[in-house]
Design brief:
There is one protein chain. This protein has no helices and 14 strands. A hairpin with a 2-residue loop joins β5 and β6. With 193 residues, the chain is mainly β.
Length: 193
Amino acid sequence: GAFTCTGRGGIQRFEWIVDGVKYEGQGEQGKQLSFTFERPGPHLLSVTGYSEKLVVHSDERTVTALQKPSLVLVEPQDGKSFVYGQKIAFVAQAEGLKETIWTVTAKDAKEPLLRVEKPVDATTSQSKIEYTFEEASKVADALVQVTGKLPAEIKLEPPAARVTVKLVPPGRSVRIVKPEAGKRARFGEKVKL
């Protein structure tokens, strides 16, 4: 954060202390301090004004550093294929966020197929949507992006995550036929596939 102090009465310099560690201020007589907290939570901030080596005045306050929000798409895996008409669940783990914005866009399209705001579940810290691509849409690849919605007072780039899904017509599939499900083999034994 950026902190600024003011002083009257012949103050010539300021000394800043954050969590018991002394820092030099910048600007006119050190009136400003730019500081990045390394951990979230409460921090004690104090400033002391000096006039010819005499302490004129001190002020202190507790400031709270918020956890940096994060967003990770956990379902589905990037590049996974789905059949037209299949309902696809998209799940994001959203730490430090209360709301997300989801967009579903066909590859190379300018306009999204869907744009929706969703709250983050307070218990699981997850945001979810479900979407079904119809075969008539002729969408082959789609990009799904989720972006964290930050309060106006937080001046950070909102976190975002994206995944690409591939769509295939029904009837095209691959499955294992040999060995049969549940078949057992001894260690070192060759298995015919």
